[in-house]
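Supplementary Note 3. Input sequence used for the single-chain structure prediction.
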Amino acid sequence: MSQDLGVRGYHYIEFYVGSAKMWAFWLAKTFSFKIVGYSGAESGNKEKVSYYLEKNSMKFVISSLLKPTNYDIAYFIQRHGDGVKRWSLEVDDVKKAYETAIANGGIPSRTPKKFENEQGYVEEAAIRLYDDAEICFFNGDNYKGIFRPGFIAPIQKINLETEDTGLLKVDHVVGNVRENEMDLWVNYMNKALNLETFLEFGPGDISTKYSALLSKVVRSKDKKIRNPINEPYEGVKKSQIEEYIDEYTGSGIQHIAITTDDILKTISTMRKNGVEFLSTPPDTYYQMIRERGIRIDEDIDKLKELGILIDIEGQGYLLQLFTKPIGDRPTFFFEIIQRCKGSEGFGQGNFQALFESIERDQILRGNFDRE
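The predicted structure, written as discrete structure tokens, is reproduced below.
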């Protein structure tokens, strides 16, 4: 039986990218993150450059290689392009969390290690996830510096003043896996991290007339950690999951959902800041919302103007919108989400509208028909 790992919640998420500087400055300008820390040649790291960004409770690390001898980043970028290498969990005791996860089937990636300098120390360990990703266990209670040893204040003092987007925290992290791998990874996370299967979407639940997928959501019992896992399902055309696996060259992390308390302001600001979102659903989508007599606090006309999707579940409702892929490959993207009146779902009522929008982009990329 799985034991409690002492998980406090999501901690940092690290991206491996072709240019850490460009990604960091783009996130600062468009998502209004603050560049808080830097690690590179000036701080003594000759192999890797990283920028540490914060916004409210969110912590992102953007890393790229300085020399091709950093095989970890070089291999990841060559195979997958820009994407998420690892997401971490803040835990009370790294050694205990790691050993508990390993005892329950977690695949070792990095054994517990202490990183220290004159400002204290952090502890970290990791288990494997999907093809080339990691889940980290992190504790920085005994460190007073910026993020972790090796990071210093940003070198470049560039004015990046931008309108605040109101983004708050990571809501969930979504993985895409190959056909027949979903249950494997669901069982893996449930056992290793003491999670539970919260939602299941079977054949026909998530589909358009052309493509389909299967999905399960695992979460911690306190709801702090939520991780949907998707796999392809047979359809007439190539599904978005198949396109991801082809373009990413394997299974990995597809998107990160970030919460806001005012999605109208957030999306309006992000659009002004230069973020591209998926195309707006047809007028019939919003007409159907009106005809169903759905009662929400927001103005439907304003939601329509910004292309925001609406899903009702029980007494609550969910508002969401998805960015277009962030990098050059049609792989990783962000979801912006507002949970209203206790909503705990993932927008099942929006799946068809969402996937039809993705399919329109797939057609433009020439990645919709099966070869």
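The chain has a mean pLDDT of 88. The two ends are 45 Å apart (CA to CA).
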